[in-house]
Design a protein that fits this description.
single chain; 3 helices; 0% strand; rod-shaped
Length: 87
C-alpha cells in the first residue's frame, strides 16, 4: 500500500496547471472528432458529398490517434516536472 502512495505524489500547483492544459487540449480534440464525424454523416445523405464525407471520416479517425498521444505527452511532461521538483 505504501508503494502506491509513493506513486501518487502530487507536485502541487504546477501539476494542476499542466494537467488542465492537456485536459483542455484533449477536450478540443474530442470536440473536433465529433464535428468531423457528424458533418461526415450528413454528407453521406447526399451522393455528391459522399467523397467529402469519407475524407471527414478519415480525418476524424486520424484524430483518434492523437487522443492517446496527448495523454502520453501529458504523463511524460508531469513526470519531468516531478523529477525536477524532487531535486
Amino acid at each position: 500500500m505504501s508503494d502506491r502512495k509513493a506513486l501518487d505524489v502530487d507536485v502541487g500547483q504546477e501539476h494542476i496547471v499542466i494537467q488542465r492544459r492537456y485536459d483542455a487540449l484533449g477536450a478540443m480534440n474530442d470536440l473536433l472528432i465529433a464535428v468531423w464525424f457528424l458533418i461526415g454523416s450528413f454528407f453521406f445523405l447526399k451522393e455528391s458529398l459522399t467523397t467529402d464525407g469519407t475524407w471527414l471520416f478519415i480525418l476524424g479517425s486520424a484524430q483518434l490517434l492523437i487522443k492517446p498521444l496527448i495523454k502520453l505527452v501529458s504523463l511524460i511532461h508531469v513526470g519531468r516536472v516531478f523529477k525536477r521538483a524532487k531535486k
